[in-house]
Design goal:
This protein has about 375 residues and is of the alpha/beta class. The chain contains twelve helices and 15 strands.
Length: about 375
Amino acid sequence: MSLNHVRPWRNIYRRKSRQIMVGDVAVGGDAPIAVQTMTNTLTTDVAATVAQVQAAAEAGVDIVRVSVPDEASSKALKEIVRESPVPIVADIHFHYRRGIEAAEAGAACLRINPGNIGDEKRVKEVIKAARDHNCSIRIGVNAGSLEKHLLEKYGEPCPEAMVESGLEHIRILQDNDFHEFKISVKASDVFLSAAAYQGIAEATDAPIHLGITEAGGLVSGTIKSAIGLGNLLWMGIGDTIRVSLSADPVEEVKVGYEILKSLGLRHRGVNIISCPSCARQGFDVIKTVEALEQRLEHIKTPMSLSIIGCVVNGPGEALMTDVGFTGGGAGSGMVYLAGKASHKMSNDQMIDHIVEEVEKKAAELDAAQEAAE
């Protein structure tokens, strides 16, 4: 729950859901919203897949999904799971036996699509394997692969059809006394996704995995995901998220965190507040921010940094950030620490100096956190 009683208009009241475990990551309940991504390497290329998982883990991912399309991938999955620093979700489509093999290989969770996994008997076999190997399940409803009888009933993919699909599959799991599951109801259409997620949120207390499927490239997919996921998260819906981009999985992780950070739901690393720049700027804001984003990627401590080109908004923004820099005149600007004007710094030295100040502040915050624990 994101609460700020001083500014109640910033409060987000998260939907109450059951808590399950995906490996050692708690999902739902009062657990932090987990960030997920998916590898896009061939699963049979173990080295490449593990490298991608490790890169995503370094970027802060909590859970990584890996596609398991064939028996060779099932065999590779066992080694990937063994070398992964985070829980692995096995993505299963069409072949229910891949789900059984993935559970045996040590997957923390099985993602199965009720529209293409097969009849109820096959689903039951996957449930048994999940139970036997302490594996959770994600029910993955997708507008593009709804069951034939639902398409005949509703005429087209719609929120009602997606919710009904999800509830039918929930019933199968519950009838088999299996409750370690979460659910997603994804579509590439933002409106359809949002409506389906609102419907499923009202119909079950299961943890919800959010995503706008096939969102697009880095820019368009980021915008579409920010709109769709951002609105749902603002409403309190969502326990895990994945930003689906035609891009490096690390970019999905970064965007996912930025969405959560913008809503105050999750914090990791430096939140840079910067102006778009204009003729008033006292230094090159755009190049400075680009450089700082790269130089500060190693900071994991949640903190804020304001980089503002001039004194119109600079001092005001700096009041609310841990470190700030506001452009001035004569080739220098003002450095702010803990919201207060501290000292002047020349523009040609300001990037190195800001990095030093941020690192120093991060160390202070880490030490205070350790002392509090």
